[in-house]
Design a protein that fits this description.
- The protein has two domains: 30 residues, no CATH class; 164 residues, 2-Layer Sandwich (Tetrahydropterin Synthase, Chain A), CATH 3.30.479.
- The chain is elongated and about 60 Å long.
- It is built from two helices and ten strands, in the order βββαβββββαββ.
- The strands form two sheets. Strands 1, 2, 3, 4, 8, 9 and 10 form a seven-stranded mixed sheet that branches. Strands 5-6-7 form a three-stranded antiparallel sheet, with no helix packed on it.
- By secondary structure, the chain is an alpha+beta fold.
- Strand 6 and strand 7 form a beta hairpin.
């Protein structure tokens, strides 16, 4: 059985009014007698393990990122909302990490291919993927080395939107009552893109 937090006698006001004392239950200012909590809370995951290494390219003629290259991406996610009085959680850290891991694991050590890109045609030929861009078979890779993403470009901004909206859907479909979510993709140190969404609890 958990014990009530009590305030030592030396913390009492001299008149003894309005301050919990010895044997009195300590209820923080934002907690009500029935156990509900007021205010808004944030829970965030920003760990070294929340990252992936991947190759990509942009279909921007003449841009240096048109060439195949890669990044060691790091992902951070923050959710906001109220507390469930039964558990004391806004959201269990384990649930948030699992939702993120399920999305970034398939991207790790893969070539990210934007399947919604109008300048790109992706063809599967047996166990290979052929990409037609400025010419047919512009790039051919083993299917197992590719991650197909429903985005127009694999920029940090659109990766943040894809991951953020996917995490939002997974959590809210699972019953999480979120007021907001923010997801950040860092493609290199000091270069990040952030996607945010607000909802109602």
């Amino acid at each position: 059985m958990s014990q009530a937090l009590v305030v030592p006698a030396h913390r009492l006001r001299r008149d003894g009014r309005g301050v919990p004392g010895i044997g009195q239950l300590y209820i923080p200012r934002d907690h009500r007698e029935d156990g509900t909590v007021t205010g808004t809370f944030q829970v965030a995951v920003a760990k070294e393990s929340a990252g992936f290494s991947a190759a990509h390219f942009l279909t921007l003629p003449g841009h240096m990122c048109e060439r195949l290259h890669g990044h060691n991406y790091r992902v951070a996610v923050r959710v906001e909302g109220g507390i469930d009085p039964a558990t004391g959680f806004l959201l269990d850290f384990a649930v948030l990490k699992q939702a993120l891991k399920a999305l970034i694991e398939p991207m790790d050590h893969k070539l990210l291919i934007p399947t919604a890109n109008p300048a790109l045609t992706v063809r599967q030929d047996g166990d290979r993927l052929a990409l037609d861009y400025t010419w047919r078979d512009w790039l051919v890779v083993p299917r197992a080395h590719a991650c197909l993403l429903p985005v127009r470009h694999t920029t940090a901004e659109l990766l943040a939107e894809y991951l953020g909206s996917s995490v939002w859907d997974r959590l809210t479909t699972g019953g999480a009552g979120l007021a907001a979510l923010s997801l950040q993709v860092e493609e290199s140190t000091g270069q990040t893109a952030t996607w945010q969404r607000e909802g109602t609890r």
